[in-house]
Design a protein that fits this description.
Blueprint (H helix, E strand, L loop, with lengths): L6 H14 L1 H20 L3 H29 L1 H18 L7 H15 L4 H11 L4 H17 L1
């Protein structure tokens, strides 16, 4: 009888986690909120999209430090903390007012506290579970993100 390998369940979990992570949520939902934000607060399209730019720019600078954090603390802790912070910060948009600075600060905070839910930690998990077919599994995990964005 062949021994059951649980790595595929881990890969599926990583795909689902990555689909709920900041990179996916931000990419696939940002455009939905542009028109309502412009209508509600009389912001220009440039002002609304500047938050996305600030978020991506901030993630670029903090990502290497989170890679070190994943190596030191482990991917599970970083992912769980990141998902909690991401959910809290997204929920905080309920209290958004016309102050554009608070809007920008929320996106910078999302980048700093939510970067642990991006590809950094999840690829670390896949690398630990898979020796053979690692590239294929990473491809399957990333395809799950695209399927989530399509749905």
């Amino acid at each position: 009888m062949r021994k059951l390998f649980y790595g595929w369940y881990v890969a599926l979990g990583c795909g689902i986690g990555l689909a709920c992570g900041l990179a996916s949520v931000l990419t696939y939902t940002f455009g939905v909120f542009v028109t309502p934000l412009r209508a509600e607060f009389n912001w220009s399209q440039t002002e609304v999209f500047a938050a996305l730019f600030l978020c991506v720019l901030t993630m670029t600078f903090v990502a290497p430090f989170f890679g070190l954090l994943v190596d030191r603390l482990g991917a599970r802790r970083v992912i769980l903390a990141g998902l909690v912070f991401e959910a809290a910060l997204i929920a905080s948009f309920y209290f958004q007012d016309a102050n554009i600075l608070s809007y920008y600060l929320r996106y910078v905070a999302l980048a700093v506290l939510g970067v642990g839910t991006t590809h950094i930690a999840f690829t670390r998990i896949i690398a630990l579970w898979f020796d053979r077919q690692r590239g294929f599994v990473l491809g399957v995990m990333l395809a799950n993100v695209n399927i989530n964005g399509f749905a």
